[in-house]
Write a structure and sequence with these properties.
The complex is a heterodimer.
Chain A: E1 4-6, E2 11-14, E3 19-25, E4 33-38, E5 45-50, E6 54-58, E7 61-66, E8 71-76, E9 85-91, E10 100-101, E11 105-110
Parallel strand pairs in A: 2-11
Antiparallel strand pairs in A: 1-3, 3-8, 4-5, 4-9, 6-7, 7-8, 9-10, 9-11
Chain B: E1 4-7, E2 10-13, E3 19-25, E4 31-38, E5 42-51, E6 54-57, E7 65-70, E8 73-78, E9 87-94, E10 104-105, E11 109-113
Parallel strand pairs in B: 2-11
Antiparallel strand pairs in B: 1-3, 3-8, 4-5, 4-9, 5-6, 7-8, 9-10, 9-11
Chain lengths: 111, 114
């Protein structure tokens, strides 16, 4: 059974700090990795994806992938209170069309 | 209006009742999904459909059935609801020609089974 593991948190960081969210996955054949953000009472929305080893930056967000360690992370620079949400890590697995989600990490950015 | 619309948004029912959750979309996507979200368990796939004639079981399909009435409509049924089916249910769509793994979610249907 494929698994995507995340620390459930809550993770609390002060405003302006870097928030680091981590995820590990069990399927060594996984190729594609996704970060979804879910505000309380709302539906998830895709904010980042990464396919290749290394870093991918988009504004204040950086996704990092290390396939050898089966590890994906999301860094949020200059964290804002509006970043407070649950962040879901997901992968598609080898040859799969299905997304497997982690349980999510709840982030609180303290003003 | 939302691109992916779920009805009802909230429903309270009793054990043994038949329940249908409906999903319609205006995104023109072929692929549709039903997920369930429980506190501490994350999102789990119930069923998915890649076109009108294609229905596939997901991770937790027992106790559920689906119907793909049209490209834009995908319904989830609980034939005889039980309390452990109390959860938040999300419908989602994706475009097979776009980024794999990019799902567009509806606003969710909160179901309570007493």
């Amino acid at each position: 059974q494929k698994e995507v593991e995340q620390n459930s948190g809550p993770l609390s960081v002060p405003e302006g700090a870097i928030a680091s969210l981590n995820c590990t996955y069990s399927d060594r054949g996984s190729q594609s990795f996704f970060w979804y953000r879910q505000y309380s009472g709302k539906s998830p929305e895709l904010i980042m994806f990464i396919y290749s080893n290394g870093d991918k930056e988009d504004g204040r967000f950086t996704a990092q992938l290390n396939k050898a360690s089966q590890y994906v992370s999301l860094l949020i620079r200059d964290s804002q209170p509006s970043d407070s949400a649950t962040y879901l890590c997901a992968d598609t697995g080898a040859g799969s069309y299905q997304l497997t989600f982690g349980k999510g990490t709840k982030l609180s950015v303290i003003p | 209006d939302a691109d992916v619309t779920q009805t009802p948004r909230n429903r309270i029912t009793k054990t043994g009742k038949r329940i249908m959750l409906e999903c319609s979309q205006t995104k023109g996507h072929d692929r549709m999904y039903w997920y369930r979200q429980d506190p501490g368990l994350g999102l789990r796939l119930i069923y998915y459909s890649f076109d009108v004639k294609d229905i596939n079981k997901g991770e937790i399909s027992d106790g559920y059935s689906v119907s793909r009435q049209a490209q834009a409509k995908f319904s989830l049924s609980l034939e005889s609801a039980i309390p452990n089916q109390t959860a938040l249910y999300f419908c989602a769509t994706s475009d097979p020609w776009a980024l794999p793994g990019e799902l567009f979610f509806g606003e969710g249907s909160r179901l309570t089974v007493l």
